[in-house]
Amino acid sequence: MSVRETLGKHSEPSLITVDGPSISPLKEGRAISTAAVGPWRLVAGKLVRQKVAMAAGAIILLLYLVGLFAEFLAPALPMTSRPQYTYAPPQGLSLFVTKPDGSSEFNFHVKGYKVEIDKVALRRTFVVDDTKVVPVGFFVKGPLYRLWGLIPTERHLIGPINRSDPMYLLGADRLGRDVFSRLIYGTRVSMSIGLVGVAMSLILGVVLGSISGFYGGWVDTVIQRIIEVVSAMPTIPLWLGLAAAIPLTWSPVNVYFVITIIVSLLGWTSLAREVRGRFLALRSEDFVTAARLDGSSETRLIFRHILPSLTSHILAVVTLAVPTMIVAETSLSFLGIGLKPPVVSWGVLLQDAQNIRTVATAPWLLIWPSLAVVIAVLSFNFFGDGLRDAADPYDN
Amino acid sequence: MADLPEDVVLSVENLSIDFKLRTHVLHAVQNVSFQLKRGQTLCLVGESGSGKSVTARSLLQIVDRPGRIADGKILLRNGGEVTDIATLFPGSRPMRAIRGRRIGLIFQEPMSSLSPVHTIGSQIIEAIRVHSDVDKSTARARTIDLLRQVEIPNPDQMADRYTFEFSGGMRQRALIAMALAGNPDILIADEPTTALDVTTQAEILDLIKRLQVSRGMAMLLITHDMGIVAEVADEVAVMRFGRIVERGPVDAIYHAAEHPYTRELLASTVKLTHHVEGKVPAVALSAAPQPILSVRNLSKIYGWHGKANALRAVDDANFDLYPGENLGIVGESGSGKTTLGRLILRTVEPTGGSITYRGKDGGAIDVTTLTKRELRSFHREVRLIFQDPFASLNPRMTVKEVIGDPLVVNGLAKGRALEDRVAELMRMVGLDPIGMERYPHAFSGGQRQRIGIARALALDPRIIIADEATSALDVSIRSQILDLLLDIRQRLNLSFIFISHDISVVRYFCDRVAVMHRGRIVELGEAEQICTAPQEAYTKSLISAVPNPDPRNKRMLHRHRFVAPANA
Amino acid sequence: MLGYIFKRLLYMIPTLFGMSLISFLIIQLPPGDYLTSMIATMSDSGQTVDPAQIERLKEIYGFDDPFYIQYLKWIWGILSRGDFGHSFEWNQPVSGLIWVRMGSTLVISLLSLLFVWIVALPIGIYSAVRRQSLADHVFTFFGFIGLAVPNFILALTLMYVAYKYLGQSVGGLNSPQYTGAPWSLAKIGDFLAHLWIPIIIIGASGTAALIRILRANLTDELHKPYVITARAKGLPEYKVILKYPVRIALNPFVSAIGWVLPHLVSGVTITAIVLNLPTAGPLLFRALISQDMYLAGSFILLLSALTLVGMLLSDLLLALLDPRIRFN
Amino acid sequence: ADFNEADILKDKVSSGAIPPLKDRLPENPLVIKPVESVGKYGGDWNMALVGGGSLSMLFRYQAYEPLLRYTPDWSGVTPNVAESFEVDAESKVYTVRLRKGMKWSDGHPYTTADIKFWYDTVFSDKRVAFVGQDHWKSGGKPAMLDIVDEQTFKVTFEKPNGLFPLQVAWANADQTTRCPKHYLEQFHIDYNPKADELARQRGFESWIASFQAAAGFQDDNAFFLNSSKKPCLHAWMFIIAPGENTERAVAERNPYYWKVDTEGNQLPYMDRIIYQMVADPQVLLLKAMQGEVDLMDQYIATPNNKSVLYDARAQGDYDFYTLTSTEANVMNFIFNLNHNDETKRKLFRNKDFRGALSTALDRQSLIDAVLVGQGAPAQPSIKKEDPLYNEQLATQFTAYDVDKANAMLDQIVPKRDDQNFRLDEEGRRLTIIFEIDQARAVFLDLFQLVIPMFQAVGIDAQMRTMDRSLWETRVRQGRDFDATAHQFGANGGVAAMLDPRYYVPTDANAMYAPAWQLWYRDRGNANAEEPPVETKSQLELYDKLKATSDPAGQREVMKQILQGAADNFYVFGVSLPPDGYGIVKNSMKNITRTMPNSFGWPTPAPTMPEQFYKV
Ligand SMILES: Nc1ncnc2c1ncn2[C@@H]1O[C@H](COP(=O)(O)OP(=O)(O)OP(=O)(O)O)[C@@H](O)[C@H]1O
Ligand SMILES: Nc1ncnc2c1ncn2[C@@H]1O[C@H](COP(=O)(O)OP(=O)(O)OP(=O)(O)O)[C@@H](O)[C@H]1O
Ligand SMILES: [Mg+2]
Ligand SMILES: [Mg+2]
User: Fold this and answer.
1) What is the count of residue pairs from B and C with beta carbons less than 8 Å apart?
2) pLDDT (tens digit, 9 = 90+) per residue, C23-53?
3) What is the C-alpha to C-alpha distance for residues B495 and A380, in angstroms, rounded to an integer?
4) Which residue of A has its CA nearest to B420?
5) Lowest-confidence pick of B260-274, D139-153, D188-202
6) Pairing of the two strands B382-385 and B463-467
7) What sections of the protein cross the membrane (chain C) (predicted)?
């Protein structure tokens, strides 16, 4: 840029003539790119630069991969029960064993247990037995499974080299099943079915709420009455009725899928009302009028022009709904319609933990599944947050 | 720290402000220096987008997010001491003590700068009570007084109304009242009268002048109206591309401008005071002498506050608009101009009357009875430029989407073609297409206004209702835009309803002018005639208050006030 | 305004009727009736129930009547005599049962609501203003733990902690020695000592939700020009934020006010069961499970009425909060 | 003799609120021999009820006062309210004598007038009568009641009814001691012409409903709910009855209680029973661990909870007592032998099929995993120590042998599909859906392990859990279910004769044969189905048992029934139920440390709570 300076007689500062807005590259010496990009690219570009959000995204992806390869990743089958290891506490993985002479040697292993049965207290007592070393390996042969129901194989990512040795990295449950493996299998159901419900109530809530708030008048009146009825509707007998109506031949997963859909059919009302409230406030804004005058159809007005203003709220509501849906089974199971064994999901694992016995003596049954839910939810949240920030025009 | 000369209350030294954007750094303000003196007015004029508002905001440390004071000092006399505002933390107590109390700011965009959910009164009362320890009722009394001073009718009632019930000009005045509420020593007025009719504008400027004289208030006035500059400025600084290109006493600037840009500015001002030469009269333009739009007995009553309080925003309006004609609408702030425009488009439902529109095929349709679907095609042909550009731009859409939207929804362009068309439109209104990916809030007031114009032009309409479409533009760009519009009119046989307070613009641009007062069209006639030989008393007073862009001939002082007849 | 309220009140009448009909229908959706569930409980303890006796009971309870007759009888009783019917399970008039429980429900609901707002509002605002700060992340983390761990597990854990480390009588709102005793200082102390668990648990998910939603909505408003205007007046930051953007960000909460009470009555039922709280939720739950239909029906009717009033209230507040929302 | 009473009562006597003790006791009070020692007066017995649901529990603690009650070892019955109870040689006429001077808890005399009132209104008045009280019938006909004098009445059956005394003593069977005429007559139109008005005042439509609610004989809940005004013969009477307060119920000593200890002290020792109403068993568990409950074997005393309860003994200051099991098995696999589906019915009725499935079960590992090693593989049967023990019944098909099971099944359903599941006669995959009441946690655990075992022999076994009422409707009242699982049924002695559900299908608890049991009870019923000969002969044997009144004769017939059951092999099970446990505070005295666990022998009522005391 050329700056020509002339000294003027009455100008105290120098008389300056510039021939364009002054801009400079972001970094010294870098070329100025003036190519404008589309809005989506813009958002994506901003998203990519958010480290936390990207990490969260990576975790979400990872969780789905875990779900996809559950059979391979889990050292044991989720239903295999070993009575002698009921309530076995978690073992730690360690790399070295100390030999009797005091030197240590590399040996990837977990420690075995010494088990005692206490007849009076009716329990097994586990003591880590330092002398029992259970060597652990990668890509070991373990129980036979079919990957995706197709490929029969015995390879597991990790497992005890001698397949009859006990390896309970996260402990065992009350039937002596491996919590780690169950957690891995649980990812599959929890990260898929539950989220369908979130998506459905999201769509219903947004669409009906938007319409109600946008049009007002009798449309609003009708939708509001529907909301009132739906939200005051007693769900418990509905579930009980449904549980009776659904054919027994359906598998528990199918049943739960249907239930999820119905949960979402009932769960949209609060979002709808919130969306409506915002629409009532926003519909008279000038930019909406402007878009209308531009010839936007009402659908476009609603979804393209007004709804983006609710991005943050909707993202927040969705991330809040995710944990609720993942653990919904636990409360539904009170009524006998949540997911039930033999299906494995995080909610089912938590169901198993809802008693004092677990809280008092086997906290790992409670902690790990909860942690799984928390991690999933936090990831969704941080990813959603990143998305929000990326879509926020004020955020650079 | 350097001492300031005795009469200087604020000194800006080598101020630079950068915006770090996605692709580049924008130096919005570069090396700007000026001083504000007690009781004096510095007028900051300059091209739209040259950094005036950013400079003004930086004085209060409220520059928008990516903006950052990169360099320079802002020295404020603080009792015996001198504070460098640039070093203060934005939310800190000393900074807060300066805001409102020491430096009052009138924002450029009056329409969006007020809270939509609080009454005007409560917002002003609060401004009073932050800095002085008075009880609510005293503050309210003072608020009402302030509102009266800024010429808001029925101030005690209006104080309890909400922003959206105020017309553009009324909001601007409310904002002025708010800025004055803290009795600041320095008033920064960022285009404070753009939405005001000349009469009101004169009153407001008078009010400010009085305060300056009585309290020694210093003022930084940012404006595009060279007339106003001539009337009130002691000193003038001219900005362009983030720099002050010329600075000096008002007389010197007007009569011995150095910088080519300053000269261009003045030339444009003069040009606008004359009617366009060689402009073909509208009626002759059109082969068919049938009006394209006829408005009959149109009225709108706002009656939320009960029958007794019902307000006739538009009262029995009648006029015709012929193809290719530019009809100007002038009138007092709050007289119903915006409402009239909106009624024609049916974004506000009329209380009574009819609007007949003659479509391309020559068939007449009654706009008041159109269905939603029919309205949509009507809207394609009749476009509106909003008075409040900020509010009319979707904050979550990039400019490209905003301007492109009408093209997209009407299926006129997409992909590459869309982008090219948007770029072309932006260039047409003098915007750099580089800003295409920015969101509306990242533009200056004038730039936003041009975005609005570009959007209206995108569809090749038949009528454009332009509500204060050029108020935020500097004269040179303004004249360019007006010429552009005239050119388009010529080519496309377009008609304009041009709502404006700027009589010179109206005179330059319009064929006929309607004068509105309290919802009624009080006079309608040839532009030249209205501007030079008005018939009605109200019009006369209006014309008399037009400021003269010559500091040696301050006309505003000789204006006469119109007092409405008692029965109105 | 008054006209609007009146209109809404008028709407309520058919809506309530519709709701009562629908809920009465839904209550009867599950197979069987009160008798089935009664038999279920009895046979659970090893008793034998004679089918002939069941037939007889059916007749006595009027379960042989068609659905609409049962409904009409019930609704007529309410309309003509204010008689909500008889609870089979409790063997007493429904109205007596409902009102007793409503009191404690109200207390707990309001206290937890208060807790939620007191905790969540400042945190939500703080999180929005200081986005991505350490504290924001910490709040987020704990908030989501509160959400991700099912309420009753949280309840069990807290109760276990209270048992193990505080040696406190768990569950309920009073230690056994104070149940039925007149109010005294000691009893109040005991009451307060019991209150924290339910309030934290009922509040946990609500707090997290409120924080997140407030944070989301507030962030959107923080940059609006009117906020900058307020700032330019020289207002302290907290006032700027509290008066302007927070007010607009509250819109979703006001929209949701209609549910607060009904939700606290029925939404936290399982928590209340686990915590042994004498609130309406468990009673309703039992009534629904055991198909004690008049009790359940009346409860739901009451909740519906509360929902309707809540929604009207929320709509009025919405208009008050944001004058752009007007009613015609 | 000299009698003693509690101090609180002495105060009441001196204030004139109640008459002196000798006027309150019957001439011949029942003398109770304390289990350990004579106790001392005072103290509250802290108890809890879960859910407020099943008040039948109260028979266990304070309301077990039939004419005759079971002996503490459940070997027979002993007089209780009745001073004597005699039967004629044919088991047709029973002569009962009440205690002279015995009074209701409000001081009103308890006489044969009350019995007559019960007989006339509750038992035989068609307007209000409830069916039930089957022990008062023989051959479907009600017994005749003859009042001899104020204290004596006779019950005459048309056909021999040898089980009558045993049935009277059943937990909640006897209503004759729970029907105070002087209180209830006001609600009955025949006794009070204004009964209808009274009913309306109480919120009822007619006197019928009002009388029923007041008497409360339609179900146990109704009997106890809001019953604080109803006089009773129990050791404690409610001052705050369940339902009157939803948080707790309180019962106070009955000043007219008619039992004394060996030293003439009027019982009960303890002043009050206080029931906390707890909504969830987990909370009750915590409360018990905290020592807020004095005695508890219901709800919380599961094998799974034992370790936490064990650890908390010091903190809760309690210890355990043993409950000997009275149930036939921990879980019985019940196939629907009257299935509506022709093919399935045929298959399920095949004894070898059931035997094969039973052989496919690895019972020991089930016991290890779910029962913490407690128990021993067994079919639903009589326990070994009992004279009725039948080895075939107990042990057949319990040996785990997959190959044998497969071989047996290959005889019946040889064809298999591509996934190696067997096909039934129609070529459908052999899917058996077990419908389980989801509240039965042990079943759920067992089934998670059992299903793979069935799958290993080519049976596509599946489990569906459901809410209890749905289960009741589908299974107990339906005919479309494939199979289910249940427990209960008795494993010995008197109980086995009264509840032989797995040995002979006499009532609705015989879920394996819904149509046959109906035939037995009601031949005319459209849903009834005549059983095959071998089952019919079982039912005939049971009729014979009922007609027998001497215990030795009864035992003989019962043995035949059990042999028949072993041959029929209706159901199979997993394990003998391990002994249960209960917790009792260390301060509680006179507690029997080992007792049966049953509802019919309402644990621990026959061990006489009235003589419990606290130090
Ligand atoms: N939504 C509304 N509710 C109530 N009154 C309104 C509303 N909108 C406008 N008004 C009133 O109608 C009158 C005309 O307003 P309008 O906006 O048309 O004025 P205007 O001529 O455009 O003024 P300006 O030049 O200041 O923009 C004003 O007095 C205003 O207060
Ligand atoms: N938030 C932002 N992000 C990026 N660029 C910005 C932002 N705000 C302002 N700018 C740019 O800074 C420059 C100066 O803006 P400013 O508002 O000061 O102009 P102005 O002189 O007031 O113009 P006008 O007369 O049109 O109001 C403009 O080019 C504008 O596009
Ligand atoms: Mg500007
Ligand atoms: Mg206007």
Assistant:
1) 79
2) 788 777 777 777 777 676 666 555 566 666 6
3) 54
4) A36
5) B260-274
6) parallel
7) 9-29, 98-126, 138-163, 191-214, 253-275, 295-321
Q: How far apart are CA D239 and CA C266, in angstroms?
A: 31
Q: Which residues does D136 contact at the CB level (< 8 Å), separation at least 6?
A: D123, D142, D143, D155
B493: left (phi over 0), alpha (psi -120 to 50) or beta: left
C-alpha A385/C-alpha C219 separation (Å) is 11
Cα(C270)–Cα(A335) distance, integer angstroms: 11
**How many alpha carbons lie under 13 Å from residue D170 in its C-beta half-sphere?**
24
Nearest to C144 among A231, A381, A394 (CB): A381
How far is the CA of D324 from the CAs of A267, D328, D386, D576, in angstroms? 49, 12, 13, 11
pTM for the model stands at: 0.84
Which of B311, B314, B520, B522 best tests ligand 1's pocket when mutated (most atoms within 8 Å of CB)? B311
Using the atom order of ligand 1, give the atom closest to the CA of residue B341.
18
Question: CB distance D219–C91 less than 8 Å?
Answer: no
Query: C41 and D53: CB-CB below 8 Å?
Result: yes
Least Cα separation, residue B23 to chain A (angstroms): 6
- C232/B91 CB distance under 8 A: no
Greatest Cα pair distance in chain C:
83
Q: Please name the member of A232, A284, A327 whose beta carbon is closest to the beta carbon of C150.
A: A327
The Cα D488–Cα C142 span in angstroms is 47
Contacts of C325 in chain A (CB under 8 A): 277, 280-281
Closest residue to atom 23 of ligand 2, CA basis: B49
Q: Do C148 and A323 touch (CB under 8 A)?
A: yes
Question: Does the ipTM exceed 0.85?
Answer: no
Exposed/middle/buried for B450, CB within 10 Å: 0-12, 13-18, 19+? buried
Terminus-to-terminus CA distance in chain C, angstroms?
8
Pairing of strands D318-325, D594-597: parallel
pLDDT at D83: 92
* C219 to A49, C127, C211, D548: CA distances (angstroms): 20, 9, 12, 85
Atom of ligand 1 nearest to the CA of B158: 31
Consecutive H or E run containing D260: strand D259-261
SS3 C151: helix
Q: Do C323 and B105 touch (CB under 8 A)?
A: no
For residue D268, say if its preceding peptide bond is cis, omega within 30 degrees of 0: yes
Q: What angle, rounded to 10 degrees, do the helices at B399-409 and B445-457 form?
A: 10
Where do the domains of chain A lie, and which CATH numbers do they carry? 1-36 (no CATH), 83-177 (no CATH), 182-390 (1.10.3720.10)
Contact C321 B62 (CB under 8 A): no
What would the pLDDT profile of D435-464 be if each residue is shown by its tens digit?
Answer: 988 778 888 889 988 998 999 898 989 888
Distance from C-alpha of A349 to C-alpha of A339, rounded to nearest angstrom = 10
Interface of D with C in 427-446 (CB under 8 A): 439
pLDDT by residue (tens digit) across A352-391?
A: 888 888 888 888 888 888 888 888 888 888 888 888 888 8
Q: Hey, which residues 37-76 in chain A have their CB within 8 Å of chain B?
A: 37-39, 42, 45
Is the model's pLDDT at C93 over the cut of 50?
yes
In this structure, the strands spanning B41-46 and B218-222 are: parallel
Which of C225, C234, C324 is facing B112, going by the closest CB pair? C225
From the CA of B57, the nearest ligand is 2
What percent of chain B is modeled with pLDDT above 90? 21
B11, pLDDT greater than 50:
yes
How many helices (H) and strands (E) chain C has is answered by: 15, 2
Å between D297 CA and nearest CA of chain A: 16
Q: Where are the beta strands (DSSP E) in D19-171?
A: 30-32, 44-50, 68-70, 77-79, 82-87, 93-98, 137-138, 141-142, 144-147, 152-156
